[in-house]
Amino acid sequence: MIHQNKSTQQTDVIRSWKKSLQQGFSNWLELAQFLQLNPDEYSVVSIKHFPMRVPLSFAQKMEKGNINDPLLRQVLPISEELQTADGYVLDPLNEMAFNPIKGLLHKYHNRALLMLHPACAIHCRYCFRREFDYKAQTQAKESWQYVFEYLKTHSELDEVIFSGGDPLMHNDETLDWFIQHLEEISHIKRLRIHTRIPVVLPDRITEGLVKVFNKTRLQKIMVIHANHPNEIAQDVTIGLKKLQQIGFTLLNQSTLLKGVNDHPETLKALSEALFEAGVIPYYLHLLDKVKGAIHFDIEENKAKEIHAQLKSITSGFLVPKLVREIAHQRSKTWIGSEKF
Question: Which end of the chain is more exposed for a tag (fewer CB within 10 A), N or C?
């Protein structure tokens, strides 16, 4: 029997998750064929700066023959994206006002966000950063020293958030490099990672990635993003359990989306699926009013009604906080928070 050496095995693992990424869909005709849909019957558009991108593992969770599948709706660029409306803008949270140094956002008092990687494994059509200028934030490793110096000189910071894009698009070695530099800053206590990858590309949760995270002194929080119970399948749960076993606190934030999860029973099923996978339902966001996403929006009073119904049919710890993010506010704005 021929045994691979350790280095070869690690390379194969990397190739495996990257191969999974490459097997995704960026072409509507191919996705329609996979889902047994007639592509000519639907008004799908091509948007060059934000093209369709759907991992195979996510597409496999969609119902064949159903154009209204809630997972498909999240990723399919339809003609409604071309609509314009007052109040729907390129940068709905005015993030550039909190960008004191390339690659870093410092909006909240005690935490800073690092734009680690410009790419995502999936292109969610309602993404508030779909128009974000990632090229202006991307930099070589040596330039990140300016970011680390900024973190060192701001002693009020005790938490750093890895975001993007999606930070888990980096390889293990690069993530390890970033974490090691954070560990050298004594007032940084916590590392929070915002990622959709454990849900849409569970193959990325490899043994090597787990080892990188397991050795850090920092408290570890991972905020995943799932909107519908069908997203939390067995392959997703396996990856999440691996992260939980090495000390991650796992939280989920969802976006309330028309035609996807705008029903209390759907949200209840999502919370239950998350909790069974070891994830705490954290936030339920109202849509950030980014250009191209108007067809997902739900009026605030309707959102409050759905949320109230959710509270009436499930346990309190399974009810995420209903919030909206408002530009220049130094925290999330709770919607109907007096009822909590």
Answer: N
Please calculate the CA angle 253-257-262 and round it to the nearest 5 degrees: 100
Rounded Cα distance, 141 and 106, in Å = 20
Closest by CA to 199, choosing from 293, 60, 33, is 60
State the burial class of residue 231 (Cβ atoms within 10 Å of its Cβ: 0-12, 13-18, 19+): buried
Share of the chain above pLDDT 70, in %: 94
**Phi-psi region for residue 323, left (φ > 0), alpha (ψ -120 to 50) or beta?**
beta
**CB neighbours of 19 closer than 8 A, spacing ≥ 6?**
none
Q: Are strands 159-164 and 219-224 parallel, antiparallel or unpaired?
A: unpaired
Rounded-to-10 torsion of CA 19, 23, 26, 28: 180
d(CA 331, CA 339): 18
Domain coordinates in residue numbering, the chain:
6-82, 95-335
Domain range 95-335, its CATH number among 3.40.50.2300, 3.40.50.2000, 3.20.20.70, 3.10.180.10: 3.20.20.70
CA distance 264 to 259: 13
Query: CA 96, CA 191: separation in Å to the nearest integer?
Result: 23
Cα–Cα distances (Å) from 27 to 18, 110, 157, 189, 267, in that order, read: 18, 42, 43, 43, 30
* Rounded Cα gap, residues 327 and 6, in angstroms: 48
Alpha carbon 265 to chain centroid, angstroms: 23
- pLDDT above 90: percentage of residues in the chain: 81
pLDDT at 14: 58
Write the CB contacts of 273 (distance below 8 Å, at least 6 apart in sequence).
229, 232
**pLDDT 10s digits, 146-183:** 999 999 999 999 999 999 999 999 999 999 999 999 99
**Using CA atoms, how far apart are residues 209 and 296, in angstroms rounded to an integer?**
34
Predicted confidence (pLDDT) at residue 98 exceeds the cutoff of 90? no
Give 11's pLDDT tier (boundaries 50, 70, 90): low
